[in-house]
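Sequence decides. Consider this:

===
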Amino acid sequence: MNMRSIWSHVTGGDSVWSPLLRPPRSINSALSSLTISDRAVSERDLISLAPIEKLPRELAWKLIEYAPESVLVLRLSSRKLRGHVDKYAAQNGMRFPLVNELRVFSTNLFTAPPPLVPLNRILIEVPSSKSDLFQLRLKIRNFPISSLRRTSHAGSTAYWTTLSEAEKDKEASLRDCFGVKIGAIILNEYSFLLNGAKQLINAVQFEKLELSNQILCENEIQPILAFIEDHNITHLSLNVRNTDLDDPVLTLFDLSSVVKSLHIHQHPLEVMQTPTNYLFGIYQGNWSSIILEMFSRKLDKLRIINHKYPNYLNTSAVDKLRQSLPFIGKKVWFSATCPQPTSVIVTSVNDHFVKVDYDGNVRIIHTSRQALP
């Protein structure tokens, strides 16, 4: 079961905790046998230490980072190593990245009458090799472990819980357990979560941000831009259906000025008669010119998924991009849906691989970046 299927279970039903996702035992029971000790090692003890136990703390910590899956074994090896492991797990401002992905999903209870309160459902993905270290950090930093559920899948461990607006102590404790680096943050409902989730990820740095909503509104753009700059985000993914923007083209230019990588996933409009040339609130846009202008800014990677309205990027626009993008002075990474061509085009232009395939996709990718997803 992959992360997205787990998330669909977590968010899709009336109950947050599906029986399919309940682990065979709780995190609390898995860690209940662990004891934390600050007892110093005496000089007499030091004489009898094994070579690995004589490592200075800094080298012991490097060993933990090299093989985080071994932390519980190290703790059981000796009192000296247990002390090194516990102090590493307890440190403030941990820079060693533990969390691959953090998802925050609103239950929309903020429209309900009392005593219901807004809830955020939190899903945390940690590499399985780091799960023991993450759980140890939860215990040492006194997070209420009994409020978490977990499951493992394909090299990752998923933890999930809920947070209400009233649970400030729990929120702060969980934030401290993340450390200062997270791989990706995925937020639903721009306006609510860019405010409601702000404290949860305060002072956390991450490279990727994914935002999803039915409609992207003008009053959300400046907070999003500020959020990106405050957290040094390099990649932004937008899942949009419609927009309510004063100037959607200008918004794309602004976003292209603050991130290096942008992914736009256009979802179908909720109308009876749908156009064939729609993207990001723009009908019949001059997309070759728009895309070239976007790449003239900070942006150097752009992916557009728009299966419902592929004619937004017509054949002449595809031809212009094929002829122009390889020569803009950047190592471009560009992939976009487009109308199905009459024949496949595969060529190399100025160290860029160029392909338009029968599936209706154009790719213009520098040879040094072809391995990038």
Confidence is low (pLDDT under 50) at residues 1-25, 109-117. The radius of gyration is 24 Å. Residues 79-90 form the longest helix (12 residues). The longest strand covers residues 119-127.
